[in-house]
Amino acid sequence: MSARVVVVTGASGGIGRATAVAFARRGDRVALLARGEVGLQAAAEDVRAAGGTPLAVPVDVADADAVERAADRVEADLGPIDVWCNVAFTSVFAPFSEISAAEYARVTQVTYLGFVHGTMAALRRMRARDRGVIVQTGSALAYRGIPLQSVYCGAKHAIRGFTESLLTELKHEGSNVHVTMVNMPGVNTPQFDWVLNKLPKRPQPVAPIYSPEFVATSMVWAADHPRRRAWWVGIPTVYTITGNKVAPAFLDWYLARTGISGQQTDSDARPDDPQNLWRPADGEGGRDFGAEGRFTEGSWTRDPQVWASRHHGVVAALTGAAAVGAAALLGRRR
Ligand SMILES: NC(=O)c1ccc[n+]([C@@H]2O[C@H](COP(=O)([O-])OP(=O)(O)OC[C@H]3O[C@@H](n4cnc5c(N)ncnc54)[C@H](OP(=O)(O)O)[C@@H]3O)[C@@H](O)[C@H]2O)c1
């Protein structure tokens, strides 16, 4: 496949950084959007080392005009945008009653409206050319709220809502612009080091934890297969979404019992822990947080569910053949 122009928001760390590198491995021209200049420069080096052409564009995705200007710059420097991946986010780890209205508004502006702004900038350009793909980084928590993450779960549910509306409008138009959502499980990223944390202990993802490099392959896969409206990445995403459809009250009970302690490590939180809500966390110490967080040991780098989800046809054919074989065997025994 020839090199494409790909925009990744939230590319200075975590899944966005790993996604940028995954596209770069194919030789793509990758625009890296985030605020932290240290992380952006390091991400640009990663992209170059992987074989891609980087363009670092510092921007706060909460600012719609700034995102629009960033898109202009990408097209001027790299060419027409083929793929736009919305990844950037922030949050607050705290019970609902300990999050201020200003914090709620800021997380919503970055995590929800940041995706809206990115989608607007991408669509303005793609619709005029009648081609392009927008990939929304979703979550199992876009379907199911959990304790200590009310502001995040609200934003992720909202992303799913506006994306589904947009998808129906594009279908109605017969547009060749596609939008798809990649719903992630818990991933080992720096978010657990730099998201504003009001808990007594340092936070951790809900187990099992996947590696950002592994889930980034699903972002690239979704960009290549954008006619599928949504992707579920990892077995925990499947059981969270389906479990919530079948027995939401059971999940209420289960999460009330396990969700508070399960999201905290044994180490105490400290007042000087990094925070990225209002400004990037790499600013003061000049530290590059990278793609991976502090849970690399034991994080999952493969999952058969991901293969099965990408190859529905093969799975259906094998299941059908097994069912026919079993029926034939039973018939012969009678
Ligand atoms: N990690 C998980 O367990 C998990 C699970 C499910 C879904 N997800 C989804 O995956 C995506 C990435 O998560 P992650 O864990 O990789 O996050 P992360 O490690 O915290 O990285 C967040 C990225 O967003 C950027 N960012 C934050 N605020 C920004 C702002 N105002 N403007 C522009 N960029 C901003 C950060 O860079 P700067 O601070 O330099 O701006 C960083 O590049 C999110 O959409 C999240 O919902 C993650």
Characterise this structure:
This protein is an alpha/beta fold and about 325 residues long. The protein folds into 2 domains: about 5-300, NAD(P)-binding Rossmann-like Domain (Rossmann fold, 3-Layer(aba) Sandwich); about 305-334. It is built from 12 helices and 13 strands. It has helices at about 15-25, 35-50, 65-80, 100-130, 150-175, 190-195, 210-225, 235-245, 250-260, 280-285, 305-310, 310-334; strands spanning about 5-10, 30-35, 55-60, 85, 90-95, 130-140, 175-185, 185, 195, 200-205, 210, 230, 265-270. Helix 2 links the parallel strand 2 and strand 3. Helix 4 packs parallel to helix 5 and helix 8 (about 235-245) crosses helix 9. The termini are far apart. About 45% of the residues are buried. The mean pLDDT is about 95. NADP nicotinamide-adenine-dinucleotide phosphate binds near residues 39, 88, 90 and 205.
Identify the strand order in the major beta sheet: 3-2-1-4-6-7-12
CATH uppermost class of the largest domain: Alpha Beta
**How many individual β-strands?**
13
At CATH level 2, the architecture of the largest domain is: 3-Layer(aba) Sandwich
Order of helices and strands: EHEHEHEEHEHEEHEEEHEHHEHHH
The CATH homologous superfamily of the largest domain is called NAD(P)-binding Rossmann-like Domain
Helix percent reads 40-55%
**Hetero ligands:** NADP nicotinamide-adenine-dinucleotide phosphate
Helix segment tally = 12
Task: Give a quick summary of the entry.
The chain is of the alpha/beta class and 334 residues long. The chain is built from twelve helices and 13 strands.
